[in-house]
Amino acid sequence: MTPWLSRAFTTAVLGASMLGLSGCESLQSGLATPVLRFMEYKVVPPTLASGDADMGCNFALATAPLISSTRALYADPSMLESVQLTSAAGCSEAQAVDEELRYMRAQRDKKPDEAMDARTAQKRLLERTALRQLQAHQLMVSSVEKKYKLKYGESCPRFRKDFDEFVYLLGTISGLQAFTNDVAAQQVVGVPSDIAPKAEAALRCLDNEKWWGVPLAGRAVVWSMVPGGSDGKDVKGSFDTAMSIGEAKGVRVAHVMAAIAAVSSDDQKQLRASLKRFASVKDFKANPEYRLIDQNAVLQMQNISDRYWTQNTGSRTPVGRLGKFWDEGSGNAPAGNVDNFLN
């Protein structure tokens, strides 16, 4: 924590303690608000530009309680909380992937006890991930509805600043992720099923060019996951358009969505195409303002590739081989030749 932020937060807490006896809620809120503004304007932007996904999710885990504590000072940290929870979900989701890979290897090696243990650990982590993502979504929805006086999914907000629009996008996608992760965790969280159609409607409010093609890709994901949702829709064409925008804008989240949709529908041809396209974008340059978002996309595509490789070979994607496959000439070293991976 920077010295300025530490002093500001300490002042806010001490001031609130003194003012609490007189019930001066507006003054307490006035003390906490500068802390939230500092986080929004001075901490979030450099974090998004950093490109270090591990640092981003661990920073969120460490600072989320600090952000939430301003609620006791009558401030409204909902939008920042939504960002922090979305980022924190990345930590538990990455751990869930590791357990899923352990499960796959145990199955291949005919180790039922280890396979069962890995699957249980994976489901617990997916439950935690889905809960964080659902909370992120709900915080965004409640904040947007209150601030812009509308019903989420029924009308579009006229955003006053980019940060609100960014959180609206992030929170909407988190809602979709919460639903899919909850299904994988046997629906222990109870994410409402109407979250998908509401998200599809909400994403229509956003500019595809401005937000890297993600709104269109998100809608295409909903079309592909809802029974009958793809009727009359060009799902593949929508993903292609969204990916082209993402490549031009320097953020490849749409590629992740296309790959997830392919996995969900067991379309291996489209999955391979998405992975290949992601890994072979010519002269790609990550958007300097949102480098962290693109780096998260890299890690998610790596996870998708690792699942695919482990399912078929028993090990993760070899280093430097994202977008290549074991049954291609340049895809892998000969099976069992571990030395080739170490050289």
Question: What structural category arises from helix and sheet content?
Answer: mainly alpha
Q: Alpha-carbon distance between the termini?
A: 42 Å
Q: How many beta strands in the DSSP annotation?
A: 0
Element pattern in H and E: HHHHHHHHHHHHH
Largest sheet: none
Share of helix, binned: 55-70%
Question: How large, in whole angstroms, is the Cα Rg?
Answer: 22 Å
Tally the structural domains: 2
What is the approximate shape? globular
Strand content: under 5%
- Overall mean pLDDT stands at 90
Q: Unreliable runs, pLDDT <50, ≥5 residues?
A: 7-24, 331-336
Number of separate helices: 13
List the helices and strands and how they pair.
Elements: H1 3-19, H2 25-50, H3 53-69, H4 78-108, H5 112-148, H6 162-184, H7 195-203, H8 214-225, H9 235-249, H10 253-264, H11 268-279, H12 291-313, H13 339-342
Helix pairs in contact: 1-2, 3-4, 4-5, 4-6, 4-12, 5-6, 6-7, 7-8, 8-9, 8-10, 9-10, 10-11, 10-12
What report would you give on this structure?
With 343 residues, the protein is an all-alpha fold. It folds into 2 domains: 47-200, no CATH class; 207-323. It is built from 13 helices and no strands.
